[in-house]
Protein backbone atom coordinates (compact mmCIF):
# COMPACT_ATOMS: atom_id res chain seq x y z
CA UNK A 1 0.00 0.00 0.00
CA UNK A 2 1.10 3.50 -0.63
CA UNK A 3 1.50 6.10 2.08
CA UNK A 4 -1.55 7.98 0.76
CA UNK A 5 -3.72 4.87 1.01
CA UNK A 6 -2.53 4.20 4.57
CA UNK A 7 -3.41 7.73 5.64
CA UNK A 8 -6.94 7.40 4.29
CA UNK A 9 -7.74 4.23 6.24
CA UNK A 10 -10.32 4.80 8.99
CA UNK A 11 -9.41 4.31 12.64
CA UNK A 12 -11.63 1.81 14.43
CA UNK A 13 -12.16 3.14 17.97
CA UNK A 14 -15.04 2.02 20.16
CA UNK A 15 -16.58 5.06 21.81
CA UNK A 16 -17.25 3.32 25.13
CA UNK A 17 -13.56 2.36 25.39
CA UNK A 18 -12.19 5.71 24.27
CA UNK A 19 -11.80 7.23 27.76
CA UNK A 20 -9.98 4.14 29.04
CA UNK A 21 -7.71 4.22 26.00
CA UNK A 22 -6.89 7.90 26.54
CA UNK A 23 -6.26 7.42 30.26
CA UNK A 24 -4.03 4.38 29.70
CA UNK A 25 -1.88 6.34 27.26
CA UNK A 26 -1.84 9.37 29.62
CA UNK A 27 -3.47 11.74 27.14
CA UNK A 28 -6.00 12.80 29.78
CA UNK A 29 -6.87 12.07 33.41
CA UNK A 30 -9.72 10.02 34.82
CA UNK A 31 -11.39 13.22 36.05
CA UNK A 32 -11.54 14.84 32.61
CA UNK A 33 -15.31 14.29 32.42
CA UNK A 34 -15.92 16.30 35.61
CA UNK A 35 -13.48 19.00 34.50
CA UNK A 36 -15.32 19.32 31.18
CA UNK A 37 -18.70 19.71 32.89
CA UNK A 38 -17.29 22.54 35.02
CA UNK A 39 -15.93 24.22 31.88
CA UNK A 40 -19.29 23.82 30.10
CA UNK A 41 -21.06 25.42 33.08
CA UNK A 42 -18.66 28.38 33.01
CA UNK A 43 -19.21 28.81 29.27
CA UNK A 44 -22.99 28.72 29.78
CA UNK A 45 -22.82 31.37 32.52
CA UNK A 46 -20.60 33.57 30.35
CA UNK A 47 -23.00 33.19 27.41
CA UNK A 48 -25.95 34.19 29.58
CA UNK A 49 -24.08 37.24 30.89
CA UNK A 50 -23.03 38.24 27.38
CA UNK A 51 -26.54 37.87 25.99
CA UNK A 52 -27.84 40.33 28.58
CA UNK A 53 -25.44 42.98 27.29
CA UNK A 54 -26.19 44.92 24.13
CA UNK A 55 -23.64 43.98 21.46
CA UNK A 56 -23.69 45.95 18.21
CA UNK A 57 -21.60 43.33 16.41
CA UNK A 58 -23.75 40.83 14.48
CA UNK A 59 -21.01 38.16 14.54
CA UNK A 60 -21.04 38.15 18.35
CA UNK A 61 -24.80 37.66 18.39
CA UNK A 62 -24.54 34.80 15.87
CA UNK A 63 -21.89 33.05 17.95
CA UNK A 64 -23.92 33.49 21.13
CA UNK A 65 -26.94 31.88 19.47
CA UNK A 66 -25.08 28.58 18.92
CA UNK A 67 -26.28 26.06 21.55
CA UNK A 68 -22.95 24.28 22.18
CA UNK A 69 -19.82 26.19 21.35
CA UNK A 70 -16.61 24.38 20.53
CA UNK A 71 -13.08 25.63 21.25
CA UNK A 72 -12.63 27.47 17.97
CA UNK A 73 -15.99 29.24 18.25
CA UNK A 74 -15.17 30.36 21.81
CA UNK A 75 -11.79 31.62 20.62
CA UNK A 76 -13.45 33.53 17.78
CA UNK A 77 -16.03 34.98 20.19
CA UNK A 78 -13.23 36.05 22.54
CA UNK A 79 -11.41 37.83 19.71
CA UNK A 80 -14.60 39.68 18.69
CA UNK A 81 -15.31 40.70 22.29
CA UNK A 82 -11.72 41.88 22.70
CA UNK A 83 -12.23 44.40 19.91
CA UNK A 84 -15.32 45.91 21.61
CA UNK A 85 -15.68 47.85 24.87
CA UNK A 86 -15.76 44.55 26.76
CA UNK A 87 -12.11 43.98 25.83
CA UNK A 88 -10.76 46.93 27.80
CA UNK A 89 -8.27 46.16 30.56
CA UNK A 90 -7.66 47.84 33.90
CA UNK A 91 -4.32 48.95 35.40
CA UNK A 92 -3.41 45.44 36.51
CA UNK A 93 -3.96 44.04 33.03
CA UNK A 94 -7.16 42.14 33.77
CA UNK A 95 -10.32 42.49 31.72
CA UNK A 96 -12.71 44.89 33.42
CA UNK A 97 -15.88 43.41 31.90
CA UNK A 98 -17.39 40.34 33.57
CA UNK A 99 -18.12 38.59 30.27
CA UNK A 100 -14.40 38.52 29.43
CA UNK A 101 -13.34 36.88 32.69
Automatic annotation (TrEMBL):
It holds the Pfam family CDK5RAP3. GO terms for cellular component: endomembrane system. It comes from the Eukaryota. InterPro entries: CDK5RAP3. GO terms for biological process: regulation of mitotic cell cycle. Belongs to the CDK5RAP3 family. This is Uncharacterized protein. It comes from Elysia chlorotica.
